[in-house]
Design goal:
Helix content: 25-40%
CATH topology of the largest domain: Rossmann fold
Number of domains: 2
Low-confidence stretches: none
Number of helices: 8
Mean pLDDT: 91
CATH superfamily of the largest domain: P-loop containing nucleotide triphosphate hydrolases
Family: Belongs to the ABC transporter superfamily.
InterPro entries: AAA+_ATPase (IPR003593), ABC_SmlMolc_Importer (IPR050093), ABC_transporter-like_ATP-bd (IPR003439), ABC_transporter-like_CS (IPR017871), P-loop_NTPase (IPR027417)
Keywords: ATP-binding, Cell inner membrane, Cell membrane, Membrane, Nucleotide-binding, Translocase, Transport
GO molecular function: ATP binding; ATP hydrolysis activity
Protein name: ATP-binding cassette domain-containing protein
Structural class: alpha/beta
Bound molecules: adenosine-5'-triphosphate
Shape: globular
CATH architecture of the largest domain: 3-Layer(aba) Sandwich
Strand content: 25-35%
CATH class of the largest domain: Alpha Beta
Length: 242
């Protein structure tokens, strides 16, 4: 467990069985930091994120966010924002509306809410694009829209599941930089599932390494990259040209 003073997310003794897959997580995720969740395919990264978001309910244990027990709460009632690989934009709604949905799913937006949407779109470089439909946007633009939607929600914890996976390398680097900037500006706690060690190097201060549905290592980034004595970590790091 890395040194920390407060935890934004706490999974206490959380157990879950899905089919034949079994999971056990007990961890505290540091407030205001970027924590990367990494590990081999099928190790439980998305499941861990789903337990925090509320898309999965633990069989045992408790989930706390910002000190509050959210174990029984539906996803919409948890203080988190989500950004996925495909960004979950509604294809029949324009960009402004898609971002506005982050504030109120019923789209009852006040003037202040609308101003907040506009300034988020400016922040991610999409000003003037408000009326465009998702299908007319590039992958990078859709990703920017997803970040804007997370910004307007103003939730303290942002969960990202492979947010850069669909992007080509140049765009990916630009989006990684944008996420780093947004994190510096907002101080949100970010939990990032990624397959790419470069994302860990560039973004994360802490790392949760999963194996077989359990936490094999929870460490600072520097300690994580020094643990090449652990074969699974050596394999993960070795996959990229660091
Ligand atoms: N609803 C379910 N029913 C049965 N098995 C499931 C269910 N959801 C996930 N699993 C299994 O649990 C394991 C972990 O899945 P999970 O998606 O969390 O892994 P992951 O680390 O995110 O994988 P990847 O890197 O491939 O996306 C996998 O073996 C998966 O098949």
């Amino acid at each position: 467990m890395p040194p920390e003073t407060r935890s934004a997310v706490e999974l206490e003794d959380v157990g879950l069985k899905l089919g034949s897959a079994e999971f056990y997580f007990d961890c505290r995720i540091a407030t205001g930091q970027i924590t990367a969740i990494v590990g081999p395919s099928g190790s439980g990264k998305s499941t861990l994120l789903n337990l925090i978001a509320g898309f999965e309910q633990p069989d045992t244990g408790r989930v706390r966010i910002e000190g509050e027990d959210v174990t029984e709460r539906l996803p919409a009632a948890r203080p988190v924002s989500l950004v996925f690989q495909d960004n979950n934009l509604f294809s029949h709604l324009d960009l402004f509306t898609n971002v506005g949905l982050g504030i109120d799913p019923a789209l009852r937006l006040t003037a202040a809410d609308r101003a907040s949407v506009s300034s988020a779109l400016v922040r991610v470089g999409l000003q003037g694009q408000e009326k465009r439909m998702p299908a007319t946007l590039s992958g990078g633009e859709r990703q920017r829209a997803a970040f804007a939607r997370a910004l307007v929600r103003k939730k303290p914890v942002v969960l990202l599941d492979e947010p850069f996976a669909a992007l080509d390398p140049g765009l990916r680097a630009a989006m990684v930089d944008l996420l780093a900037d947004l994190h510096r500006e907002t101080g949100f706690t970010i939990v990032l599932v990624t397959h790419d060690p470069q994302d860990v190097v560039r973004l994360a201060s802490d790392v949760l390494f999963l194996e077989h549905g359990r936490i094999a290592l929870h460490a600072t980034r520097d300690v994580f990259f020094s643990r090449t004595d652990l074969p699974a970590i050596a394999a993960f790091i070795g996959e990229s040209a660091l």
